From TrEMBL:
<comment type="similarity">
    <text>Belongs to the short-chain dehydrogenases/reductases (SDR) family.</text>
</comment>
<dbReference type="InterPro" id="IPR036527">
    <property type="entry name" value="SCP2_sterol-bd_dom_sf"/>
</dbReference>
<dbReference type="Pfam" id="PF01575">
    <property type="entry name" value="MaoC_dehydratas"/>
</dbReference>
<dbReference type="GO" id="GO:0018812">
    <property type="term" value="F:3-hydroxyacyl-CoA dehydratase activity"/>
</dbReference>
<dbReference type="InterPro" id="IPR003033">
    <property type="entry name" value="SCP2_sterol-bd_dom"/>
</dbReference>
<dbReference type="Pfam" id="PF22622">
    <property type="entry name" value="MFE-2_hydrat-2_N"/>
</dbReference>
<keyword id="KW-0276">Fatty acid metabolism</keyword>
<dbReference type="InterPro" id="IPR051687">
    <property type="entry name" value="Peroxisomal_Beta-Oxidation"/>
</dbReference>
<keyword id="KW-0443">Lipid metabolism</keyword>
<dbReference type="InterPro" id="IPR029069">
    <property type="entry name" value="HotDog_dom_sf"/>
</dbReference>
<keyword id="KW-0560">Oxidoreductase</keyword>
<feature type="domain" description="Peroxisomal multifunctional enzyme type 2-like N-terminal">
    <location>
        <begin position="286"/>
        <end position="414"/>
    </location>
</feature>
<keyword id="KW-0456">Lyase</keyword>
<protein>
    <submittedName>
        <fullName>Hydroxysteroid (17-beta) dehydrogenase 4</fullName>
    </submittedName>
</protein>
<dbReference type="GO" id="GO:0016491">
    <property type="term" value="F:oxidoreductase activity"/>
</dbReference>
<dbReference type="InterPro" id="IPR036291">
    <property type="entry name" value="NAD(P)-bd_dom_sf"/>
</dbReference>
<dbReference type="GO" id="GO:0006635">
    <property type="term" value="P:fatty acid beta-oxidation"/>
</dbReference>
Length: 685
């Protein structure tokens, strides 16, 4: 390490007590030899012969010679603590520090005959994890490596050829990178050796709650649930102490010491929220006929005054259909019928519950009658400070066929502050609309009885009809169901951009921002971006935004739809874009995570623009459509049909095409490097 750091310009204190392999004796020779080697190559180094238990002396050597301290290499627990403590304030004062702890596989996994060594080495990992947390705000990062390398100790027990393959030079590059100011890794644990590097993390099974009301917890219950306790299917990967589920259990003790005012703040949710994650709600069934479909359509404002609405209101219509947003109705029955209250760890005061966000995705048009089965799971529980958010994933089936998926985001007012994470990668995120005037605006009036009508579809919450219950929730009047506004917005998009064709409706996401009072008018503003329609709903009378971050994803029409792109006879590049379209359909979400960009393509033929394409790997689950991007693409590429094919087939290097003028780009040209993910890995002709 010392040689490697010096070679990269670092000033190095080489610390070596000079003990023999058994820990006895003392000599300056080992440290001096390394210092001489560094200086002979023009580097800066001084020797220090103190024990790491004399951490202050070691650090002072660095300060005397170089005036500052950035990183130390140390071994074993006490020495690691003492040296780190000696360096800590100096690192804080200069707002920079990098600490590397050297642990061992013996500490991580245990090893026969090494109890004391294993204990010390794993102790270093615990020390490093805490230093990483405490040092973060001072730009002090602490990481741990568990290396295997040839040394004076290992060469006595390993054959020479194996020692040669485990050179320390194969470990040093990781140490250098972790110490670099550009490296933001903090609190990591890495195994390294023989040129291989891997990162380790903890994993936790979903576990089982064995405690039941008014019943003792028994070892027999542990025995009977042992397989489930140890089942790592759908395991979580905790990274902070706040994610330890039983920490909340200690709050039960705290509750007994609280005054009534403090206790009220926690009374809306049981103090073991994270233990609810992964719990399944009771399966629910929903039987319905065309009557429920028509009743729902009336509940979200459809009327026979509009001839286009008849296909959703009259069972005798030749194209009689169920509105796509009806997909929330069968899924909500799994929550409304007491399912949410049955989950261990969730004790909710329903007068404080608000619907925060909703996502619905359809996998086929909804049948107009039948029986649907819904299976709901608590996906996550989040602490938003002023309240708790519960994410519920609901899959709805017709027989064994998945019909639709819903994610309910439920906000419990006043139930926050219990100390777990604020955000979740399991949540379907809302997205802001484009920064331009909307492409379409629809204004629709609700009636005074809109909530009374909508509740007949199954949401019987008295918040929407009983003034006294609404007052308990802090509202002057009963409010309209958020999912009623959701239905209004969904049908506005369906009519405006899909000709009321339910088969084109793919998904809808909304965030409920403000309540609507029955009788107010809803103004839906819409922005078309490819097959995604961004939406925002306001109350016309007050200009208050009630639905934000909302969008509807539509299936494409035959023009530009990947399945129906021309397969020859025109431009050769159309074959490639057809294949890219199929891959986006299969792997879009994965590609969006890797790429996060919108690419515009201008394909020329005989010097003239022949086709335009948009590859959107930034929004939703990705999309491809023929034509220009409605907004501003991150990068736009112009290339002839022939040269495009040569690039795709690997006969023409993109860099060469660019510098020769065959390939032109505007926008963020650095993003073009990410095209390899699309063209090389996924577009095999």
């Amino acid at each position: 390490y010392a040689l490697a750091f010096a070679a990269r310009g670092a000033s190095v204190v080489v610390n070596d007590l000079g003990a023999d392999t058994k820990g006895g004796g003392k000599s300056s020779a080992a440290a001096d030899k390394v210092v001489e080697e560094i200086r002979a190559k023009g580097g800066k180094a001084v020797a220090n012969y103190d024990s790491v238990e004399d951490g202050e002396k070691l650090i002072q050597s660095a300060l005397d010679a170089f005036g500052r301290i950035d990183l130390i290499h140390r071994v074993h627990l006490r020495g690691s603590f003492l040296v780190s403590r000696a360096a800590w304030n100096h690192m804080k004062n200069q707002n920079f520090g990098r600490i590397i702890m050297t642990a061992s596989a013996a500490g991580i996994y245990g090893n026969f005959g090494q109890a004391n060594y294993s204990a010390a080495k794993l102790g270093m990992l615990g020390l490093a994890n805490t230093l990483a947390i405490e040092g973060r705000k001072y730009n002090i990062h602490c990481n741990t490596i568990a290396p295997i390398a040839g040394s004076r100790l290992t060469e006595t027990v390993m054959p020479p050829d194996l020692v040669a393959s485990l050179k320390p030079e194969y470990v040093a590059p990781l140490v250098l990178w972790l110490c670099h100011e550009q490296c933001q890794e903090n609190g990591g644990l890495f195994e390294v050796g023989a040129g291989w590097i891997g990162k380790l993390r903890w994993e936790r099974s979903q576990g089982r709650i064995l405690r039941q009301k008014s019943k003792p917890m028994t070892p027999e219950a542990v025995r009977d649930q042992w397989k489930e306790i140890c089942d790592f299917t759908n395991a979580t990967k905790p990274t902070t102490i706040q994610e330890v589920p039983f920490i909340e259990l200690s709050l039960h003790v705290l509750v007994s010491l609280m005054d009534l005012n403090s206790l009220f703040l926690l009374s809306h949710v049981l103090l073991s929220q994270t233990m609810a994650v992964g719990q399944k709600l009771p399966t629910s069934s929903f039987s319905y006929s065309h009557t429920q479909c028509i009743l729902y359509a009336l509940g979200v404002g459809m009327s026979t005054k509009d001839p286009d609405h008849l296909r959703f209101l009259y069972e005798g219509h030749p194209d009689f259909s169920c509105l796509p947003t009806f997909g929330v109705i069968p899924s909500q029955s799994s929550i409304m019928d007491g399912g949410l209250s049955s989950v261990p760890g969730l004790n909710i005061d329903f007068t404080r519950v608000l619907h925060g966000e909703q996502y619905l995705e359809l996998y086929k048009p909804l049948p107009t009658s039948g029986e649907l089965i819904s299976e709901a799971t608590v996906a996550d529980v989040l602490d938003k400070g002023s309240g708790a958010v519960i994410l519920l994933d609901v899959n709805t089936y017709s027989g064994k066929e998945l019909v639709c998926y819903n994610q309910f985001s439920v906000f419990v007012v006043g139930a926050g502050g219990f100390g777990v994470k604020r955000n979740s990668d399991k949540a379907k995120p809302p997205l802001p609309p484009p920064n331009r005037a909307p492409d379409a605006v629809v204004i629709d009036s609700t009636t005074r009885d809109q909530a009374a009508l909508y509740r007949l579809s199954g949401d019987w919450n008295p918040l929407h009809i009983d003034p006294s219950f609404a007052a308990m929730g802090g509202f002057k009047k009963p409010i309209l169901h958020g999912l009623c506004s959701f239905g209004f917005a969904g049908r506005h998009v369906l009519k405006q951009f899909a000709d009321n064709d339910p088969s084109r409706f793919k998904a809808i996401k909304v965030r409920f921002a403000k309540p609507v009072t029955p009788g107010q008018s809803l103004q839906t503003e819409m922005w078309k971006e490819g097959n995604r329609i961004h939406i925002q709903c306001k109350v016309k009378e007050t200009e208050e935004v009630v639905l934000t971050g909302a969008y509807v994803d539509l299936h494409g029409t035959s023009e530009g739809s990947p399945e129906k792109l021309p397969q020859g006879g025109g431009l050769q590049s159309e074959l490639v874009f057809a294949e890219i379209g199929r891959r986006i359909k299969d792997l879009g979400s994965e590609l969006v995570k890797k790429v996060n960009a919108v690419f515009g393509w201008e394909i020329t033929k005989d010097g003239k623009k022949a086709a335009q394409w948009t590859i959107d790997l930034k929004n939703g689950s990705g999309s491809l459509h023929k034509g220009p991007y409605k907004g501003k693409a991150d990068v736009t590429i112009t290339i002839s049909d022939e040269d495009f094919m040569e690039v795709v087939k690997g006969n023409l290097m993109p860099q060469k095409a660019f510098f020769s003028g065959k390939l032109k780009m505007r926008g963020n040209i650095m993003l073009s490097q990410k095209l390899e993910v699309i063209l090389k890995d996924y577009a095999k002709l």
